[in-house]
Amino acid sequence: MTRLTRNPAALLAVLLTVVAQLPAAAAEPPPGGRGAQAEIQIGLCAPTDKIVQALDLRPRGAPITVWQFDDPALTLFGR
Asked: For 6, 8, 46, 75, which has the most beta carbons within 10 A of its beta carbon?
């Protein structure tokens, strides 16, 4: 298989995984309760500009700040 045929297949797998999560995320939470939330992280092995172009990524809303806490030896980063 050439690289060209593997990348679209991998992209399709990523998109199907994300789309499969949409119904659960779009469901209304029960009255007085909080809806279930999940964070999905997917590693993509391609140059960033190609990924952005393929996924048609663009900012939606205000930027967010993400904090990751680790010890000086970077134990969590190593995992």
From this structure: 46
